């Protein structure tokens, strides 16, 4: 009988619990034993785990966060740590480890596989959607939903005062949340790392669009969605610059960690359920060193190294729609 272990690592994402549930239920159906390591890679280093059974998976699919807890474990980057983890996995007689996390967590999984003979499978779980080789990641759809509902609320007060608002969304190195939240909330402008060139160019584009709106509609609200870490000097620097150049008040809103929480939307629950159960099938088929993702509605197995070596591009169709709709609004 195979023994399967699972852990969640890096930024938690809504739908991680749904994925754990799918893994455990599939294991139980196939008469495999399931274990959960706690607090990301820390659990592997401290042999901190619990047995997972189908009866404990009740009422879990709708819960945000992760019942296994998550962490960023810098110590795991050392060869010594991977050796300790391998020893602990062997002691528990684990045959396969499933890591649910982002590209950093996949680097960790690959690092472990250099020191451990067992099977290693990655499942994409991050709100950032920045993993090459899968159309979406678990948690991404919920983060967009949260960002959009928050931007809708900001729009109400922005309209009332005809103010400029700068709304910062998450996505450390990727503009997926920013672009799609801007598109879905009919925001007026979006700034993402993939398309950012210089502050001057970005400012010129914003000011030109704002002027166009003012010339055609008079005093208006103006909502700019910006991905975190893009603007040199941070959000405050952009607020000052915009206030100086427009002569208007600018209000910043940082959505922050609310985007990581909440009950997963159905799309994330569905993706998590598909990937979790397929991961067990992949293990039975003897796969290792791969991420199980989804492309065009089909499961895919992508070598772990590819998931971070290649940058996932923004969807050109979304970029096109956003650029077509800017200044076409009659709101
Ligand atoms: N090169 C590496 N070698 C070994 N382990 C690593 C490596 N890079 C990352 N890890 C492990 O993976 C953990 C999570 O990585 P990281 O903080 O980059 O988050 P992530 O998995 O990319 O998720 P997210 O982007 O959603 O926060 C790290 O804290 C560390 O334990
Ligand atoms: O919770 P922490 O460690 O501050 O990490 C925040 C980062 O994690 C993410 O939420 C997921 O990668 C990023 O969007 C964000 O930059």
TrEMBL record:
Kinase recorded as keyword: yes
Gene3D superfamilies associated with the record: 3.40.50.450, Phosphofructokinase domain (3.40.50.460)
Principal location class: cytoplasm
Keyword field: Allosteric enzyme, ATP-binding, Cytoplasm, Glycolysis, Kinase, Magnesium, Metal-binding, Nucleotide-binding, Transferase
PROSITE patterns: PHOSPHOFRUCTOKINASE (PS00433)
Domain Phosphofructokinase: from-to ranges: 3-283
Compartmental location: Cytoplasm
Pathway listed: Carbohydrate degradation; glycolysis; D-glyceraldehyde 3-phosphate and glycerone phosphate from D-glucose: step 3/4
Record's catalysed reaction(s): beta-D-fructose 6-phosphate + ATP = beta-D-fructose 1,6-bisphosphate + ADP + H(+)
Keyword rRNA-binding set for record: no
Names of the cofactor(s): Mg(2+)
InterPro entries in alphabetical order: ATP_PFK, ATP_PFK_prok-type, Phosphofructokinase_CS, Phosphofructokinase_dom, PKF_sf
Documented EC number(s): 2.7.1.11
Pfam families the UniProt entry points to: PFK
Family label: Belongs to the phosphofructokinase type A (PFKA) family.
Name assigned to this protein: 6-phosphofructokinase
Species: Alteromonas arenosi
